[in-house]
Write a structure and sequence with these properties.
Layout (H helix, E strand, L loop, with lengths): L9 H22 L4 H5 L7 H13 L3 E3 L4 H8 L5 H12 L4 H21 L3 E4 L6 H10 L10 E3 L3 E2 L5 H10 L5 H15 L16 H10 L6 E4 L21 E4 L3 E8 L2 H14 L6 E8 L14 H4 L18 E8 L14 H12 L9 H13 L4 H10 L6 E5 L5 E5 L8 H11 L5 E2 L2 H4 L2 H9 L5 E4 L8 E4 L17 H4 L2 H10 L19 E2 L5 H7 L2 H29 L2 H29 L6 H14 L19 H14 L28 H13 L2 H12 L3 H27 L3 H18 L1 H11 L3 H23 L1
Parallel strand pairs: 1-4, 1-7, 7-8, 8-9, 9-11
Antiparallel strand pairs: 2-3, 5-6, 10-11, 12-15, 13-14
Helix pairs in contact: 1-3, 1-25, 1-26, 1-27, 1-28, 1-29, 3-25, 5-6, 8-11, 8-24, 10-15, 13-18, 18-20, 20-22, 27-28, 28-29
Length: 815
């Protein structure tokens, strides 16, 4: 999938946005009646539009980006938490609504934290150029041929954390803006090399390694990470200033990474489909060839083996739209999915076929009663949570948990056919039984209570097998004569595309279904089925407030035990008599032959559908590009921006310069979009560096713009106007908002001159805007100056005197 809207360098876009932000600030300040005299009173609080945009230079050049995607992330972005700094600023705006010194102190603290976080974006120099010896650079260059020269130093910068704009286009643009860094390339090289050499840990003396290191080794070996690069032969003769250490060099494999940037995309729910649609671009387009993209979806709707929307991939792929996880080893070889979900979740572990209504009912019940996710061994989980809360958790504790299996037995993990990691949490509970088991199980968590559910538990095995037949990872065991067949989910086909028009259970395997379900319902007489639960009352519990008297009376009286024992023996005998008959039917040659013929017919029909699909794909219909363009146009229409957060909740903070800068930054990217409609009230677009006016080279223009913004601050001027108006503040804000709408139209004229590179014309247009506002808002300016001079009360007194005089004159005339 290619994208028709290339993303400009983010550093150039940030600097270009600063110039237009200054023009926006100038016109907005004049709109609300600000003057040079008024702005001088607030000069200490520098204009946020320019300072924010210029401070983005370092953050936007980060080589590691974390971009949360999904409905939850978009909601956070909408409420001002699109970035950590934005979240702090928004909390500060809320704090401004708290009266008194407490609110001011809280806001000051939050602003200080936000400023500290922004300052930390500059990064930490790990190895400055003057401390990197030539010998070290020579060794690294010899061992890692693809690594760039390190004589420029190595810096560690904080990752850029931001919620992208809505949809796959927003995710695409965010990842495209990452800048390369030698330190990140070295990190990927070391990480991938460690994965290749986990076997060497076995020869390291045990005293040098932590306990339970086997869990770490298993983790490194299990977790896939696709990194562009190559494994190099370290056994070659290297021209080094000293000999290599005396180790068996043939045991060591060194990976040399060609990637120098990392994009980590956590997603939730529909965000997984967002990432899946974008992933082919990361694999195919050259600009992402050096970007490692790690996508971590939770409840992924595009999980190939169960995502509710991934089921549409066979259809959507006909027109070039991918809706499932991709094989990240293809193309650039740079995409990896770590897909995490829960068993039976209707969003991400839905049944693989439309031919099993029981399985669909099970997933629907799980959506209505998510309490089935509480594990059966809740005591062990509670102990782990207690350790975490109390601070007693440590690396050794984590390793012990991983090695013990008490927690890991709740998780099924496998690397799918597409090379991605799939983890499925299985609580051990079946959603279909949750309406009957939730209340007794929950009460049993309390001390002194223990309530069994023999009635519903009797059907657990029967329903579990029936539900398993609706999933493509179902396995049939014990299908031979004299054995008990069982259908069990393997949870090992997370990366295999499901086909909803097929049945996971073949006709031949389906011959075993009646016997399997019958035996599951009857049970083994000990733990499963009717004979192991309902007809085994002596093993049931009914303890209330520490007393089991009622349970003994119900379950352990002589009559109940005798009758249950008789029925149990009768059913077990019936089971032993019928199983040979089932075996005879299952092994009947005529039936088996007919079932195989049906399976062959189904396979031929599936092949015909596949061939028809390939024929349609050969037509080259590709709607992925228009989809991305439409997504980007929609984001432009609703005012989408990289951060996406209004700075505050009040009408005053809605006019913050940070928000203005965000709109300008989006306008800069939108400048390249062909045929994209621009909303009436958008900020003017900014040209790229090198097209018309080169803002990167024209430092004088940037300095001039900053000075203009220093003199005219729209947010502070609006605050002054609101204070001045007193009890008329609400009316003033409404009037100001209307004026700002018109100001945007005048500002667009400034943007037009800037795009054409006519700085003089832009300056003249600003002057015309100034004159316009001065003429029309002279009264507001006078009132503002009067207040600053301390004569506002005198002015009000004069007004009152004038009103009294007019009233007296009126009364006189009336007389």
């Amino acid at each position: 999938m290619t994208n028709s809207v290339p993303t400009p360098p983010r550093l150039a876009k940030a600097k270009a946005a600063a110039v237009t932000a200054a023009a926006v600030a100038a016109t907005a300040a004049l709109t609300i009646g600000g003057t040079t005299a008024a702005s001088s009173a607030v000069l200490a609080d520098r204009d946020q539009a320019v300072s924010t945009s210029l401070s983005q230079d370092v953050a936007l050049s980060a080589s590691i980006g974390i971009y949360p995607v999904g409905p939850g992330a978009q909601i956070a972005r909408l409420f001002g938490a699109g970035t950590p700094e934005g979240a702090l600023r928004t909390l500060g705006s809320v704090a401004a609504l708290i009266p008194g010194e407490q609110g001011e102190s809280f806001r000051a603290t939050l602003d200080a934290l936000a400023a500290t976080l922004e300052a930390a974006q500059e990064g930490i120099t790990l190895l400055p150029p003057d401390l990197i010896p030539d010998s070290l650079n020579t060794v690294l260059r010899a061992l890692i041929p693809l690594l760039p020269d390190l004589n420029s130093g190595i810096e560690l910068a904080l990752p850029e954390i931001a919620v992208p704009a809505l949809g796959p286009a927003g995710t695409y643009d965010a990842v495209a803006g990452l800048e390369g860094d030698a330190g990140t390339q070295l990190l990927l090289t070391v990480l991938k090399s460690a994965q290749l050499n986990t076997g060497l840990l076995d020869v390291i003396p045990g005293a040098l390694l932590p306990d339970n290191i086997e869990a770490v080794i298993d983790l490194l070996q299990m977790v896939p990470l696709n990194v562009p690069g190559q494994v190099i032969d370290v056994g070659v003769d290297l021209d080094l200033p000293w000999p290599l250490p005396d180790i068996d060099i043939d045991l060591f494999e060194l990976f040399s990474s060609s990637a120098d940037r990392i994009a980590i995309i956590p997603t939730f729910g529909l965000g997984g489909t967002n990432a899946a649609i974008t992933a082919p671009s990361f694999l195919k387009e050259e600009q992402f060839a050096k970007t490692v993209v790690l996508i971590i979806p939770i409840r992924n709707t595009s999980r190939p083996g169960g995502g509710i929307l991934a089921m549409l991939t066979p259809l959507s792929s006909l027109v070039g739209i991918n809706m499932s996880n991709v094989d990240g080893t293809k193309g650039n070889g740079n995409v990896t999915f770590w897909d995490i979900t829960a068993a039976y979740d209707i969003m991400s572990d839905a049944p693989s076929t439309i031919f099993n209504p029981v399985a669909w009912a099970n997933s629907a019940t799980g959506a209505l009663m998510p309490t089935y996710l509480i594990p059966q061994n809740v005591e062990q989980l509670a102990a782990v949570v207690e350790d975490i809360v109390s601070g007693n958790i440590s690396l050794d504790t984590v390793l012990q948990l991983l090695a013990a299996g008490d927690i890991t037995e709740l998780f099924h993990d496998n690397v799918g056919q597409d090379g991605n990691l799939y983890i499925t949490y299985d609580s051990g509970n079946l959603p279909l039984l949750e309406p009957f088991q939730f209340l007794p199980r929950t009460i049993s968590y309390l001390p002194g209570f223990d309530i069994s559910t023999p009635g519903s538990e009797s059907f657990n095995g029967f329903l579990t097998q029936l539900v398993a037949m609706g999933y493509q990872d179902v396995n049939l065991t014990g299908a031979g004569v004299g054995q008990i067949p069982t259908f069990v989910r393997g949870f090992d086909e997370g990366g295999t595309q499901a086909k909803f028009w097929t049945n996971p259970v073949s006709f031949e395997a389906g011959l075993q279904a009646p016997q399997a379900l019958f035996n599951a319902l009857i049970g083994d007489g000990v733990e499963t089925g009717i004979t192991g639960n309902l007809l085994r009352p002596e093993d049931q519990e009914l303890k209330l407030f520490g007393s089991s008297a009622i349970g003994d009376a119900v379950y352990r009286n002589a009559l109940t035990v005798a009758v249950a024992g008789f029925l149990r023996d009768a059913l077990l005998e019936l089971k032993s008599q019928l199983n040979p008959l089932f075996d005879a039917v299952d092994s009947n040659a005529a039936l088996v032959s007919f079932a195989k013929q049906l399976d062959q017919a189904a396979a031929q029909a599936d092949n015909l559908l596949a061939d028809a699909g390939d024929s349609i794909r050969d037509l080259g219909i590709d709607l992925s590009g228009p989809l991305m363009d439409g997504n980007r146009a929609f984001n432009n229409l609703i005012g989408g921006n990289p951060v996406g957060a209004a700075e505050g909740l009040s009408g005053l903070s809605a006019l913050s310069a940070n928000e203005d800068q965000d709109k300008v930054s989006v306008a800069a990217a939108r400048e390249e979009a062909p045929d994209a409609e621009i909303a009436e009230e958008e900020a003017p677009t900014v040209p790229e560096a090198g097209t018309g006016a080169d803002f990167l080279a024209n430092t004088a223009l940037a300095e001039r713009a900053e000075k203009v913004a220093d003199a005219l601050n729209p947010r502070k001027a609006l605050q002054a106007a609101a204070d001045e108006a007193g009890d008329r503040a609400e009316k003033r804000v409404t009037k100001t908002q209307n004026s700002l709408r018109k100001a945007n139209e005048r500002t667009a004229l400034v943007g037009k001159e800037l795009r054409e590179g006519d700085v003089v014309g832009a300056a003249k247009q600003v002057g015309a805007n100034v004159q316009n506002r001065v003429d029309r808002l002279k009264k507001d300016v006078d009132n503002g100056l009067s207040k600053l001079r301390g004569s506002h009360k005198d002015s009000e007194k004069n007004n009152d005197d004038n009103k009294s005089a007019k009233k007296a004159d009126t009364n006189k005339d009336a007389a």
